[in-house]
UniProtKB/TrEMBL annotation:
<keyword id="KW-0813">Transport</keyword>
<dbReference type="GO" id="GO:0005524">
    <property type="term" value="F:ATP binding"/>
</dbReference>
<dbReference type="GO" id="GO:0005886">
    <property type="term" value="C:plasma membrane"/>
</dbReference>
<keyword id="KW-0067">ATP-binding</keyword>
<keyword id="KW-0547">Nucleotide-binding</keyword>
<dbReference type="Pfam" id="PF00005">
    <property type="entry name" value="ABC_tran"/>
</dbReference>
<dbReference type="GO" id="GO:0016887">
    <property type="term" value="F:ATP hydrolysis activity"/>
</dbReference>
<dbReference type="InterPro" id="IPR050388">
    <property type="entry name" value="ABC_Ni/Peptide_Import"/>
</dbReference>
<dbReference type="InterPro" id="IPR013563">
    <property type="entry name" value="Oligopep_ABC_C"/>
</dbReference>
<dbReference type="GO" id="GO:0015833">
    <property type="term" value="P:peptide transport"/>
</dbReference>
<comment type="similarity">
    <text>Belongs to the ABC transporter superfamily.</text>
</comment>
<dbReference type="InterPro" id="IPR017871">
    <property type="entry name" value="ABC_transporter-like_CS"/>
</dbReference>
<keyword id="KW-1003">Cell membrane</keyword>
<protein>
    <submittedName>
        <fullName>ABC transporter ATP-binding protein</fullName>
    </submittedName>
</protein>
<feature type="domain" description="ABC transporter">
    <location>
        <begin position="5"/>
        <end position="256"/>
    </location>
</feature>
<dbReference type="InterPro" id="IPR003439">
    <property type="entry name" value="ABC_transporter-like_ATP-bd"/>
</dbReference>
<dbReference type="Pfam" id="PF08352">
    <property type="entry name" value="oligo_HPY"/>
</dbReference>
Amino acid sequence: SGRLLEVEDLHVEFRTREGIAKAINGVSFHVDAGETLAVLGESGSGKSVTAQTIMGILDQPPGFVSGGEIRFHGKDMLKMSEEGRRKIRGHGIAMVFQDALSALNPVFTVGFQIGEQFRIRKGLSRGDAKKRAIELLDQVKIPNAKQRVTEFPHQFSGGMRQRVMIAMSLALDPEVLIADEPTTALDVTVQAQIMDLLADLQRERQMGLILITHDLGVVADVADRIAVMYAGRIVEEANVHDLYARPAHPYTVGLLNSIPRIDEKGQELRTIKGLPPNLMRIPPGCPFHPRCPKAQPVCVEKVPPLRVVAPARGSACHFAEEVLRGE
Ligand code: SF4
Ligand code: MG
């Protein structure tokens, strides 16, 4: 197939002392060149685990893939040699992590850390690597890149540090960039700037971009499609405008209602009652049923599969058509 990155029926489990936690339960999605997919969910929904599985850094606590495929240009990465996978990571697929401060080494300059990839993986000299680091700092719009390249991570503001992380992830010209909560630690204005930067870079480089977030408001302007995750499953998938206009799953309805809106100042925020399930004891039937205002007896008995409910729209709710109609 011509797809850039495809995840198909992925299952991931964690062995813990208390039992097996089912973190990912049959997740499928794809991202193509020049396209932005947002993966949305609360913490524990499996969105970060999905990213970590793609990047092969699923190791704490010991997680393992119990089924499915992750195809890059049609080839299943899970069946490749470690060497084959290493080639894809960085060049093919790169990741921006949520916590720039702990991902950067405090004792090296940012220029050294960005340049390291050029030295190690492309064999550039120190001088050339530094030049490339300056170019990248320019591309992520850090002012005075020539001077700042010799500074240490703590000398950068939170937003500028996240730009450094993005520069680092771009060093090997990845075709797919995965950004896991890239703006969580930042204030709202800086969040918007970083999202704009990611959107610009995605367009300029025609990358496939996967934005992982718990905040629908943050990704609304930059995503093409959204996959909503709950209890390790995708419960709704749609293009961003359709999803906003007419959600097709009660969980998405709840998420939309919990976004603060400027036009509704002073109005109380409606949050979703209850908590996401313990992944060692996922409720039977629809995993959302204990929190769902629309739940019926069938929801406790039958798992609703993700199915097409309207053109280019998927929902894993027995009553998706009613939800779509706003009932
Ligand atoms: Fe709610 Fe039932 Fe739909 Fe699950 S299947 S989201 S419990 S109405
Ligand atoms: Mg996370």
